[in-house]
Amino acid sequence: KSIVVLVSGNGSNLQAILEQISLGKINGKVTAVVSNKQSAYALTRAKEAGIPAIFIDHKSFASRESYDQALKKSIDEFTPDLIVLAGFMRILTPEFVDYYSARMLNIHPSLLPKYKGLDTHQRAIDAGDVEHGASVHFVTPELDGGPVVLQSKVPIFERQDPDELAQRVQQQERQMYPLVISWFCSDRLKMQNNKAMLDDKIL
Ligand code: GRF
């Protein structure tokens, strides 16, 4: 399968995916990495792995629609079976999301449906939660609202430092995202009627 990964930042999830591919655990390959941030370290990781690393600057487009059109054009050169959002920090238009419907995944650092949006670690601490985590979900036009495929939990300790919590959550992310991608690439995972299905069972 052809996998295109969209990034904006460090790319630790991208790295984890590339590692599992090189270990033969995912029936696919990352054919391109696209970033809306030139400084994203994820682009460096892609180049080092010999993967096309593409920067498309959202600041040079007049509207979200025109940016997403350029993004789509660039992505489609790689005829992707799967689009993986891995720390891509931009809201996508409904047209874009619908175009890649049932073939776009995201990872979000919270136990969805809790804490959609930003600053999730601090919000979980402030709420007095005793656990937190990450979720992989199919992308639908509702922000962070698509059907969840897999969640991973970590405890929140007393007087929890948000950075330490983020590190533990991200460690889980690096385990779970490649696993979900491996399911998708071996045709075990699908989205049907807005539901995530693994081996034809609703998740
Ligand atoms: C992850 O915590 C992810 O859940 C969030 O952004 C972070 C990206 O990290 N959406 P990285 O760029 O993969 O290292």
UniProtKB/TrEMBL annotation:
EC number(s) on file: 2.1.2.2
Function: Catalyzes the transfer of a formyl group from 10-formyltetrahydrofolate to 5-phospho-ribosyl-glycinamide (GAR), producing 5-phospho-ribosyl-N-formylglycinamide (FGAR) and tetrahydrofolate.
InterPro entries, per the entry: Formyl_transf_N (IPR002376), Formyl_transf_N_sf (IPR036477), GART (IPR004607)
UniProt organism field: Paraglaciecola aquimarina
Annotated binding of N(1)-(5-phospho-beta-D-ribosyl)glycinamide, by residue: G11, S12, N13
Keywords assigned: Purine biosynthesis, Transferase
Sequence positions that bind (6R)-10-formyltetrahydrofolate: R64, M89, R90, I91, L92, N106
Keyword Transferase attributed: yes
Name of this protein: Phosphoribosylglycinamide formyltransferase
Annotated CDD domains: FMT_core_GART (cd08645)
Reaction catalysed by this enzyme: N(1)-(5-phospho-beta-D-ribosyl)glycinamide + (6R)-10-formyltetrahydrofolate = N(2)-formyl-N(1)-(5-phospho-beta-D-ribosyl)glycinamide + (6S)-5,6,7,8-tetrahydrofolate + H(+)
Site description Raises pKa of active site His, residues in chain: D144
Gene3D superfamilies: Formyl transferase, N-terminal domain
